[in-house]
Amino acid sequence: MKFGKGRSAIEVNIASRAALFHEVQTRFEEKQGFALATLNLDHLTKLPSDEAFAAAYRAHDLVVADGRPVGWLSKLAGQPLDVLPGSDLVLPLATLAAQAGVPVALVGSSDAALAGAKSAMEARVPGLDVALCFAPAYGFDPHGAEADTICAKLNQSGARLCFLALGAPKQEIFAAYARAHCPSVGFASIGAGLDFLSGHQVRAPKIMRILALEWLWRTLQSPRRMVPRYARCFAILPGLTIQALRQR
Prior knowledge:
two-stranded antiparallel sheet, 54% helix, 8 strands, alpha/beta, 6-stranded parallel β-sheet
């Protein structure tokens, strides 16, 4: 299913959890890299005005739906998609990597958060090999010298799955850039997933996630940042709803 219009239109090309895991497992077996993005409403507000972000998205091999509104829109269009938030994919993808003997890397956030996430992942995923942890400096340029340094470290480490916790749009732009420099590495953009695992951020209680109220939890935690973000998200919903009905 496609979301958006013109050059900023993005197609979700992986419809289900099973399809995603099958594709990732196949790429592990064939030693092929990939870039995985999780499309949500916040991304859809940024894509029309950020050509670098849109170009990076178009370069991704795998795109899944993230967020209940995207899932609802897909059902409205008659093309239902599994909702696969990046935060929920960290441990399942790490488990696939461990089973395949694939070392992983953690890039983004802070040194303390990465150390905590590494410990949590190793405790919960038997046999997991975290080969590299790297927290870029503040103001990280996804096309700059530090990006090249990360690519070199990834190639030297032997990691073949890299979790990116840089925030949108930097993580997706870096994934598209690094995909060409590290052809055997899979890049998964997972936002705050590592911060949740390390305890540096507190995720909404499970009941709020089940009731699709995680947005409210995040707003209460950080109103100055999240209120404008969600206002932009709600503003584009009518247009996306019309587009979904036309695709039905």
